[in-house]
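Hey all, sorry for the wall of text incoming. These are the two entities for the joint prediction.
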Amino acid sequence: MEPHPVIDVQSLRKQYGEHVVLDDVTLQVAEGEVAAVIGPSGAGKSTMLRCLNLLEKPDGGRFRVQDTTIDASAPIRPKDVKQLRRSLGMVFQSFNLFPHLTVLRNVALPQERVLGRSRAEAEARGMELLERVGLADKPAQYPSRCSGGQQQRIAIARALALDPEVMLFDEPTSSLDPELGLEVLAVMRELATEGMTMVVVTHEMQFARDVSDHLIVMAHGGIIEQGKPEQIFSDPHHARTRRFLRAVLDR
Amino acid sequence: MTPEVLLSILQGLPTTLVLTAGALALGALGGIPLVLLRRSPVALIRLPVRLLIEVLRGIPPIVWLFLIFFGLPSLGVRLGPLTAGILGMGAISAAYLAEIYRGGLAAVNQGQYEASMALGMSTPDMMSRIVGPQVVRVSVPAVATYGIGLLKDSSIAFTIGVNEMLYFASSESRATTDAIGPFLTVAAVYILLSVLSAWGARTLNARLRRRVAR
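and here's what came out:
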């Protein structure tokens, strides 16, 4: 285990009423590491990710991202929420671009409001990132005029523009045609190569196997297995992992 | 219908427009705090505001105008007819527009809030930069329909002595002992204004919609 992981989650628990959706989740992600989270739907993968930036409030356990520690048993201070979200970028399954803003404004506005950058500065940085995700010809378009794959790449640029230390991806390709998913995966691959720390909830087994350094298998709200992806893919220890992998790989 | 009668009635057009625009502007602004408080998680705030909206909408406009113009002076507040008209119609508009905004807010996808929060935007920024503009856009048709209704209802202010179009139509009628011509003329002017406003609202809406069409 790395001496000082960027993300350190201890015994995280989340429940809706009686229904426990996350139970005793413990994991670490080292700097520059790509962690892929896989498992059947309803396993709690997205909930775990959403707890990390407090879109869901955990009910138990604690976690640390860089220098921000969140303890579910104590009241959460607004200052910590702000600092936490400052260090995390999030990409959603449904993109969630702002439909009333142009592509460039989508990427620039958060920089202006959150980091206090000037409009010129934010738009220059925005153009730089749009270029990087292959959309330098789109700044004046509205998101509705872009394909799903393009929208997701814009969403990635929007998150990167705030210079996060970790990027969280919540099934980034699940609502895309396979072909459009590829262009998003290519951008993610490049990010990984550049050393970005990433946590990726995904159903893309190829991506999980080829790109991730750390594979986390979840089922029934808990982690049933984690480790090196090649090891888990070739020789899963847990019967549930075996069943899940067989189901997704044999299709 | 004679040109003299039409010209006489048109003297009231600026007042009709000021009254309508003033009340609509007041309502458009006043509706914002009303809808935000109406959605407060604190019942002690939410319930009184809900009651206020019901009261504003539940009392006929003419009764409101009488209460403000004839009633307030007995409490020591004396307002001119036009001011009373704008305030009264504006307060009622705020309640109606708050309800229109409420529908607009419900139409904004939850993902818009989540993305704003995940990006670290503050709640005021999220509401004013992300959610608000989208609510305005989806609310345009309903607000325009309300505005056109308001244009016609502004004639009620005649009863408290506002010199708007109906006032001049009525004086013309009395002066010429023509009981129908002036009123048909003012009716035609209202129809023309309504058609123009509806056309303007459609154009605005189409322009906004073209961008955000999903």
